[in-house]
Amino acid sequence: MSATPPSSIKLKASPKRVSGVTLAVDLKVESPKIRKMEKVELKRRGFKWSAALIILICLAVLLKITVRESFLNNPQFSLKQVIVKTDGSLTAQKIVRTSALTTGTNLLTVNMHDLQRRLMELPQVRSVKIQRDYEGCLTLEVDQRQPVAWLECAKLGLLPGRPDVGCFIDDEGVTFPCEVVTPAYLALPVIKHEALNQNVPGVAVTDLPVKSVLKLLKELQERFEQGAEELRSIDIQKAYAMTAVFADQSQVIFGVYDLAEQLTRLDRIRLEARHRNWRIATLNLLVKQNVPVTFRDAPDLKDLLDDPVTAAVNSTKQNKTTTR
Prior knowledge:
Blueprint: E1 17-18, E2 21-22, H1 32-72, E3 81-86, H2 92-99, H3 112-120, E4 125-132, E5 137-144, E6 149-152, E7 167-169, E8 175-177, H4 183-186, E9 190-192, H5 208-223, E10 231-238, E11 241-246, E12 251-255, H6 259-276, E13 280-284, E14 293-295
């Protein structure tokens, strides 16, 4: 005779084979006492979690107060001095104003990337390095673009030698406004470009005449640094030609293309001019043969055609010789 199964044994889906009969055994016994014990255990676990949460909140508040008092409100980290290391037309005062830094600002809260971005937006700035020593000092090392010439264009309001409307150009063709005028800046040559359509400070001028002018400017300044042959201006008169004017008012016309060849001819002519005491007024290097040359005084042409050094200078009737 088989025993009657207890009431706690129920049939369920999870199978267990016993003598070919599938049964599911539920060992959880339901009773008022067990339910009461489960409620007590649940309250105990809830109390533990609540206590742990309160402790974590207290620790977080304590950590926040500690950080605020030790770092954020600590006068040791307050900004006391901004040191600007730079050299150029951009003044240190404007750099500080652009940085938007104020005395008392906590150095730990200064966003260095945002500060660098603001300074790099200045057209005169090439690069920026920022250092902080956490003793109230912030150092800004600003590498400025160095001008190689003034850019003149009357129709765009660009006039050389004036801090309000003056515009510089560097060796990369980047233009930027003039903040201050110094004797060294006033001695810079002028690039005249009346055909310039627009000027965006901080952006390079990429047209071919300007690129050729900058290359020519560098070559001429390396050849003639001081004296009567010092370069004063280069005028881009046409898209294919430019005129260089020197301190003695002599003028040399260059083509935009083949500058190396033209400079070689110029060197030969200048060498002969110094040897024979010629005072050249104008020289047109656009012409490759029978180069037109004019003089301030009657030149000494004795034995000119017999001198191999001056074979490039043709003294025939096709040359222009004037007396001034």
